[in-house]
Records
---
Amino acid sequence: MASKFIITSFWVLLFLLPQLCRSIPLSTDSRWIVDQQGRRVKLTCTNWVTHNEPMVAEGLEKKPVSYIVRMIRLTGFNCVRFTWPTYMFTRPGYRNLTVADSLDRLSLPEAKAGFEINNPLFLNMTVVEAHKAVVDQLGLAGIMVVIDNHVSYPKWCCSNDDGNGFFGDEFFDPDEWVKGLTTVARRYHSHPAVIGMSLRNELRGNRQNPIDWYKFMAEGATAVHRESPNFLVIVSGLFFDTKLNFLQSNPLDVGNLNKKLVYEGHWYSFGYPQEQWTNQTNSLCAEVSRNARDNFLFLTTGKNPFPVFLSEFGIDQRGVNERDNRYISCLLATVAEFDVDWALWTLQGSYIFRQNQSNMEEAYGVMDFNWDKPRNPSFLARLQMIRQTNQGPGMNGPKNYRIFHPQTGLCVSVGRIGIFLGECTQGSIWRQNGGEITLANTGLCLSAAEDGAVRVLSNCKTKWVQASSSKLQLAVDGGNLCLEGSEFRSGVVVNKCLCLDKNLADLETCSENPQTQWFKLVPVQIGRSF
């Protein structure tokens, strides 16, 4: 029965091949990922885990694979970063396990019973076959796939001392790693859904060093490119994939792999106490945004830019973590500005088995615990601006902007009801000339009135400055009034600037949340098909 399922999926996939191949293979053009016609293809992905001990995609014990794939499309993702552990492809004792065997060895009878109800054909597949069966289903739905080598030994990731962190660690043999990359690249060589491979997730630990990074990442990149020259090759950095700054002085010695090389970075709220986010929101946002720019986003700029794939970011989607709630607005502003490709952590609302616990909940998951529906639709709606393709190859002419409000995910629009926050796909287009912000092609200026209203007027008296260290508060020059918004179709007004002194500098500490006043002028290209 398992082989029948695989054969049927193959023929259906072959029948749909022309539609699936409209965009692939993908390549790079400067800092952009593009299709065969040179049009930008923006990756807006979610992560889906297969690297834990069971070595099978999370959620298949709770819902049919077709249902999960359909939910990925319905929640707005065009791509999945699909993980795998090295041992699953390099060691017979792992790759020859059936899904049933894998669940039995971990004593997971409830998960096995769930497979029998929701995905019975998977039980007799090997874990390697099951991995491909999920990729096939993603392909049938037109969803692109990045195959991500997450760990070597199948287990939860990541800590500094888990043996999976860096070349030479207990479970991380470089030769076996290259063998695994080669095997997976060969297996998915001609698969119409697979657009690329990520070489390794979150290098880390006491062994990490740039010298070995250059040596082994070049070997891994070359091995994948040799086996599957159509794949994008995605290269991660050090310190949990937060640092690639050493590339500023010494590029990776692989060229651009015939326009296939992409770099990746991760960005979470971790490492800063909640009190700092709540008391110094502006200054901390400035700091973490600068860190992202200096450590990996810089690769999108300069004389020899590359695409950057923000392959992990995310929040506790229950909404109870104030550190996460403040960090995400900061991140969305920067990601919108740079218009990078990205993958949200994470799809799964629960794990079959993680850290010695069965049926463990994932608060960062798009899906709820039972995989019935999205956990937090309002958060997904806030991603609208970064889902859009705002920039691309050949950006010329006057700079146009949308004014983005990251706390709501909405943009400043002008309509019959005045100036309000609305969908970013319909957001008004603005231009900036010194301190003036004008509605494109009208000569009308964004203006603050004495009654706190905001209007567009032909008399351009209001000059705006980017205030606070975060540069996210648009303040009236010479005053202490800032642009402010709150919810969909609500009016945009000016109010006293939050957390700023009379000189528009950050207060040392501030108990208020200035994010209602955060706005980002996001560059956009108008009238161009990418």
---
Amino acid sequence: MAMAALNILSQPWPPTPSSLSFSNNNISFLTQCNAATATINSKLLSLSHSCHFSVLSSLYGTNRPNSSSKLSSMPTHLSKSGTGCSWMQDNSMHHNDAADSECGEGPLHSAFPAKAAEISSIEDLYEFISSGPLMNKLGLAPEAVAESIDKWLAYGLHLCRLFQLKELDLSVPQKVRIYHYYLPVFFWCEDQISQHRSLYKDGEDIPPLVIGFSAPQGCGKTTLVFALDYLFKVTGRKSATISIDDFYLTAENQAKLREAHPGNALLELRGNAGSHDLPFSVETLTALSNLSKEGMKMKLPRYDKSAYNGKGDRADPSTWPEVEGPLTAVLFEGWMLGFKPVPVEVVKAVDPQLETVNKNLEAYYDAWDKFVKAWIVIKIKDPSCVYQWRLQAEIAMREAGNPGMSDDEVKDFVSRYLPAYNAYLPTLYAEGPKGSDPKHLIFVEIDEGRNPILGN
């Protein structure tokens, strides 16, 4: 499996002060931290005696994935842009080709020293977790963190195993990515799933919760989904991952679209609204939503971006991964997921070529967004970051000796997406996706380094 799954991990990632400190918005959170002191002290004392049993047994229990299992059990649709994972190499971990094909589970090292004197390190981690910029936004109070600190430690260890990190020697950037980003979002997803399942009576078939991830290219949504899917599996729940990329038109039909709109650079290649097979999307998402019983199976479509010299084509169905029910969640991600049409004068002011794209977008709610019941929108301040992120990935590929786009090719590639970002992101950020419920929607704002920040 290509390392593009870890695309965002390929670049230096210095944490910003905004991701590591409190603002006025978190003053109340500091107050709550004081209230949690007694709870955390009690919990830490308990952990000092039982951490090897309660946490490590969860790692070796029946829900632990087979260490020899291939990454085929993980998301397999990830793009092939970018290699390496320097934020994971801060503690001298070196990724190799074997890690591309294996599940990323290295030798297990206990994260919990037996000596009681070492317990302060767990308290430090608790304080670090509680200081995260997403905690207040996601409703994760310090008391709740204290009560579930063993879960945070266990799941953090699982992610260390996945990304082959030394859990006893995590750098600050690694701690930020795991404890300020991936795990808070995972716990939010768990809460959404719990609310979803509570709507059904005992004995009823419960459809999987479709969680939508809308985020610009290169910002890390695919790696986030990769980590969440892994955590669902290690906790004994079945999930499926799908991308809007998997619904691109076949090469033949993309050629027809290009011929039908001569001179429109936004529809010349795959990407914008109009270049997706919407009936196929409905068929696939409907089938996934019905995958609620034991023994039910289906294959997940995948798209081969390397076909036809990079122009792409739908992958051969014989290569599609199979997923089996009952599914707990469907993780659905895409750069334009949640985009909705805006007034014609708006798109014309951005780029006249967008007028056709805007018209095409009218059909996307029924094909995609209506299936999504919980939303995670990853928010950026400046769409031009997409160019820099893509350039970083392609440079990393070239330096690794793999085929990659030239700087000019990257500029041309990204230029076909920027008009849509400029036209549709303001409405998405102001209103959320069409039909979304604020109780089932979170905005995660990130900076140029892909770090979560407090935002609005």
---
Amino acid sequence: MFVKKLVDKASKKPGWDSDGLKAEDVNPRLVFHYGVPEGSTLLAYDSIQKILALSTKDGRIKLLGRDNTQAMLESNEMVSSKFLQFIENHGMLLNVTANNHIEVWDIDKKLMSHVHVVKEQITSFTVIQHSLYIYIGDSVGNVSVWKLVREPCSLVQMKYKIPFSASHGITNGASLVSAVMHIMPQPTAENKRILIIFRDGFIALWTIGESKSIFTTGGNMFQSLQTDKKEVTSACWGCPFGSKVIVGYSNGDVFIWSVSPAPELGGIAKSQTHRAPICRLNLGFKLEKIPIGSLKFAHADGKATRVYILGATNSVSENLLQVVILNDQTESRTVKLGLHLPEPCIALEIISSTNDPNKHKEASCLLLGKSGHIYAYNDCMIERYLLECHQARSPPSLPKQMKIKLPFTDSSITVAKLFTYNSHLLSFTDEEYILSAKNIPPLIPLEMKPNEGTHWNLTNFSGFSKITKLYITGHSDGAIKFWDVSCPFLLPILSVNQQSEEDFSLSGIALTALYFNCNSQILVSGDQSGTVRIFKFKPEPFPTENSFSLLQGSTKRGRNRIFHNIKLVKVNGAVLSIDESRSTEHLAIGSDQGYVSLVDIEGATLLYQNYIATELCRGVNSVQFETCTFHGFQKNLIVAATKDSSVVALDRETGNLLSTKLVRPKKPSRSLYMQILGSNISGHLDLSKGHAVDSVTERELLVLLCSEKAIYVYSLMHIVQGVKKVLYKKKFHSLCFWASTFYTSSDLGLVLFFACGKIEIRSVPDLYLIKEAYIRGFALSGSNVKSSSEISICSSSNGELIMVNGDDEIYFASISVEKEANRLLNHVGQVYNKDLMVSHFISGNGTPKEKKKGVFVSVIRDMKGSTTKRETETQAEDLRGSIEELSSIFAIANFPSGVDNTDGTTIYEDMTDLNIDDIDLEDTEEKPVAHNMTVAVTKQNLTSKFQAFKGD
């Protein structure tokens, strides 16, 4: 290696003997992620903070908050999640990975605070809301209790446990063990009883204080009466007070089971056993043997209390999502809505706009497809549909589905350009950007109106002078859109649909190439049909009108306020590349049919188009103007690269080849990028400094060519002469699919993007590897990835990158070490709101009542009056007291230590093992609790509970 470096240094060309790019000059990294990440597998929702979390197959967690705030978390291990739950309104998110690692995320700081490894297979995971306690069920049927300690952050296993032998027991014909599938605190008694549902169908209502099961049902006793064996796959409560539970099975059955009612509602806390369910929902899942993947209960004040039932299958089937009304007629008449999903879905979540009962509540039902796409239904429209069906009215229209996608991509992006400018003194303020960002439609809208399109309420656009980052996109329908990306959002500023002086409509033909020169105010586009459009801007400032909507209108006057003229030229083949000669006002055009064309800008005339014959693949995907000294004379050139990595030089005036020999690698592959090094003729600006890059007069002009499999550096003079001599070469170990050059404060660099998601930074012209990094999630490998045609990548001259993955997500990345290059990152990434009051935990709606009528009683809330402030304060006191009781119970072993023990380890090396005696419990005074003894409640608390249930 040392000898090789000496040889490389001795062979460096004149003018290229500088130290080159240094590692401290670059910092490749992901700056911001916008949208829904590909490969999402789980959903979680904080109903108080209004934060939606999505975990992915590769260990990422995306957070979507209020006001378009978003953040991306990345686990150390690239594994999928089994469970994902918020500790609501505490700024904590718990992620259980496929390796049984429990990750504790601080979503305020966006950091992983702790990782704990559980030895047993975790099969159930439940956070006790309003507390820091967690139930964990394992594959052998045991339930353990854990506490999250905030400072220092750790997970501590409590002494309290529920062994399989105590909760399930061994009955005749029963298996020795059965995994715990669900641990569900009983509504109205969350801190006193939990419902444990095992994989074999056995259901046990466990009283925490007495440490015993007081009610059992299901299991082998019931399955012995069935013709086919089945396992539990999903479950949810079937009423808001915990007297009914809905269970879904692997064979497609959905049963409603009665659970012993809470003592406060008139039940008696003694051991009971029921063998049969009270109701079976016939929904067609069993006929097709579709397992029940997810169940969600939605309580309503009227008769539209309902359950969402999602089938789990790998194939598209009719009515994979069904919504059923639950009332006293459910057994005799099932009112349901079947929805046909575009793909099999793997997760279901219901989110709402507000918790305030005095405000209109909008809710959405979100479905996560196997592809990672999210589909949304308006929950209120579903409720209305079911009510009208229940009342036997005429069949209403079906609720419409909306695919969640980038709110500004009505058509796909086919080509893009990114420019940065040094105009900080004139740029918009942070406050102006924050105000504009609030006008962007939310990624997941609660009010879904797909037929009305996207409406923008934006500030007026008067020119490009205040924009520090300009992003231009060409679309599949022929539209050109300008965006301000100075902060990590796409703020629309200008949309161009006009095709000519007289034609103001969209062409419908995909754009394939773009060129923009801010100094000369020229925009050039090329499309699939070979049409080249030259847009000449008027001098700034433009008249202050909303340009994004105006240029999509129908008046000629609106378009002429920005453009001086629009000219059209037709070439042979789809346009692949465009370059401008500023000295002659000419355009060089490369097409997919192998033609290089020269166009006069002023007259919009085609001067010539010459065909370049190649042996393997025709198509000119890169053209560049240059001037060099040839035989003692200056020669004006057009350097062109073809799809098969051939490089050729043409005479600019005639278009003739200067050599009949094409320079091409021995093993050619598809070319990606070409750049002439050491040039200042073709207008390659150092836009971060606002002037053209000065070339060194002694520096030899070199040609950098990047293909999918290798990089090559040639002498431009060799290209002109047709000499096949490679000066520098680097083969790739994996497939490269994008490349570009960038400037730093010290030198020029090369950035390469590989199909595996890796970014390489290399020096030029010697091609040394300076630094590499990975952008997780943005890769072309795997079975569910998008094709390269759906991925758009572009970069600015100072190393800012924007990568668009279809209509789902955008990656904002940077190579620059400048921290101020991306503004408002702290604001747009702050999904957690510390100012939300803890009082959101306490509902002011009173407690629902149960009507003693019908086999499946109607769930109707009694709304005779609002809960007073005093009652709310009393409920808050009761909640605190109940948590204190739990702390005392969980701190004491309720079974001998040798019974069904579950253990775990912490993988942080600097974290010492914690003893339960080192933990400060919420109770300062220890309250001993003996086995089989119920913790007493005060007379005042008991009285207040009865009054709350009574509704007085």
